[in-house]
Amino acid sequence: MEFPSKLIENAVGELARLPGIGRKTALRLALHLLKAEMDTTASLAEALAKMRFEITYCRTCHSISDAEECDICANKLRDHSLVCVVSDVRDVIAIENTGQYKGVYHVLGGVISPIEGVGPSDLHIDSLVSRTGTEDSEIREVILAISPTMEGDTTAFYLSRRLRDLPNVHISTIARGIPMGGELEYADEITLGRSIVDRLRQAR
Questions:
Q1: How far apart are alpha carbons 196 and 204 in whole angstroms?
Q2: What does the alpha-carbon distance between residue 156 and residue 36 come to, in Å, rounded to a whole number?
Q3: C-beta separation of 1 from 25 below 8 A
Q4: Can you tell me the mean pLDDT for 58-74?
Q5: Pairing of strands 170-173, 103-107
């Protein structure tokens, strides 16, 4: 791809590094920014720079935050006896968007994956054990909300082993089953089987 300007070429090269952005899309974005008002481009550059250099991670749950403690951990109205363990910040966002969960979180920062060289020591597992195992801890339930992949199941199993001996702490996992509006005949056997095993008992 030929470029009329080395500056455009450099901008396209940097934009194309982003996931899901090919060189044609990167060129379209670069030309859009070139034609936009100077303030628009400057505001975008400033917002990205501030995000990269000023965002920190919550000292308690390891989620992204603007301060030492994130808004969720600092919120006294949340149920701090209930901790939902997730692998990534995107999972926090997804669960929060449901509006159904009122507890707090713990972000592992990934899942155990020997193939990729990620072991338990590379994740925020020790801090989870410390957080739930102290005498003054108010945590009574830990929900393992980790994607049902081979790596995710390995991580959940490891966490269960690490946490099972903690007194007065119940370990649970999110139910896995049929999505709303889904047809049973089109569900794969693993999903259908888990929906039966993790079924909710109806009140009589």
A1: 19
A2: 48
A3: no
A4: 95
A5: unpaired
In terms of Cβ atoms closer than 10 Å to its own Cβ (0-12, 13-18, 19+), residue 78 is middle
| 95 CA to centre of own chain | 9
Long-range CB contacts for residues 190-196, cutoff 8 Å, separation at least 24:
194/148
Q: What is the pLDDT of residues 141-193, one digit of tens each?
A: 999 999 888 999 999 999 999 998 888 899 998 877 767 676 767 777 777 77
Token pair of 14 as six digits:
């940097």
